[in-house]
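Q: For a teaching session next week I want to show students how multiple molecules come together into a single three-dimensional assembly. I've collected the sequence lines for a complex. Could you give me the predicted structure tokens for the whole thing so I can convert them for display?
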Amino acid sequence: MQNITFDPAGGKLWVSVKTGGLYAISFTYTLLESDDAPQNSPAVLTIPMIAGDNLDGEGEHHFAVVNSFHPNEPLALYDGRFIDTSFFIKVLQDDAGFAISVHLFQGDDFLTAVDLGGDGKSDQVGDGNNHKTFGIKFKISKS
Amino acid sequence: MRIISFALTLLLAAAGSFSRAQSLDTTLTNKYLLDFSVPDMPAFKALGADPSNILRPSDIQKFAASFSPFYSNGQGVIPKNFALEFAPWKLGSKNWTLKKYNTGGNSLLYNSGFSIGTIRDSSSYASKLSFGYRLTITSKKGDILKAVYDRHFSNSLTRQFRSIQTGRFLALTEMKTYWIYTVRRLSRATSADSVDSYFTSNIQAFYTYIKSLWGTVPADTNLSRIYESFINQFHINITDDLDRLINEKVNLADEIASAEDSVISKFKSSMWNANRLDLAIAWVGESKDTLVKNSQFSSLNIWTTYAIGIGQSCQLLLGGNLILPRTEKNDSVKTNTAYALNARFYAGTRNVRGFIESQYKYQNYTDLKKSLLFNLGGEFRIGRQFWVVANAGIDNYLGLKNPLSVLVSSLNLRYGFNDAK
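A: Of course. Below is the structure for the complete assembly, covering every listed component.
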């Protein structure tokens, strides 16, 4: 799990997913509440969960990080929350390797947003399988 | 450098590739290769070892080899004729995205192949060496990398594929996430790997929770939505379906993949005869004594073939071949030219099929100006990567006072490598 810091006085947070390789790749993104939140707070804050894939011609997908229950709450309340991405990778034609990266950005407009850092995975499906699943998770904290 | 030495070097290179291919762990990933028949190679066709001039289109291989003949007069023989073909962009496509494949001319590069071939025959210029280039253009319906990419292109296969992968994965992840963090109340700081490990270890408890919701209407409308989506996506119709999940500890990611297997398997079996257009060119050089320094231009060959799928089990090829052989000063015509027009009809399955063929050939040099070929043949798979193509027929030279009919035959072994590098 990666720890990412953000500016609570800054612009919106974004998740950006990039996929590489001749594979069918599906992914989901969700925002999880902090462990320190009140007991009655929902654990999952992205409703419905957001999904995407690389079958629509876009090499890069980005989503605004928003609490579905309180879309306009201050950014400072995102301190300690988690961003969870999960991937399902299917071999279509060969198994020469895939590359996936997930980065968090901050800025009101994604095009000018600042890259806060990220994580990724490059691998082969291989090992006698034709599919693979895995997750990439971040904890976001106030700077 | 002798041509024959060069040929042996190519043969050894091919042998090296065979052993490399065998060492790869490709047991299941190969299910996703488009293992259609190995197409004719321009560099091989240009050498004239096959009585038919048609260039048979198919899915281009990353690497392929063709040998003919390997059997003569009842005995196995070392082939004197062989050719190699490779697709450099397909070989180097490791980091290509679907978007890149579908952008600009990249799909054309991906489906381009270069070939080299040699032959030793009994003519005065016994050693021949050829170089060829081929481009295969496949209809969107028959190109899986185009079909799954273009959301505007839709048929039953692509709709199923998208629904299964993204739809099922979302339903599974959402149900799993709810159960992990809301029902089981795992720390949200649990790493992704640890969450996966926990889920796998407690999969029966997960299914038991799903079963506990069966027939109820959860007060939580979000849970109700997630549950309904999960039940629908995985086709859970009766509680027996849930009992199977519990008792067999089913991995639902495997269920997603196996459902897709059937979609892609259907694609393979139905698309071997998809519409394709092949364009190819080959240059042939010849030498009397195998020395490159004594070699000279022999011929230039150009092909076009259009393959038309008919139903699930038939295919019609319509082809043309223009040959521009070497013209000497003492030739009776200004420029030697020959052309052939072919029609070939296949019937069969993705692994075995037979064909009938007719060819009209005209050349403006020698006495044998016109000929009509009637050919019967077949092609079938041996193992996963080898194909045998055999045909026999009658070549009837027209326009002579006593028409000359000649029995012709060809036996060709092909190897196609389309696996992971």
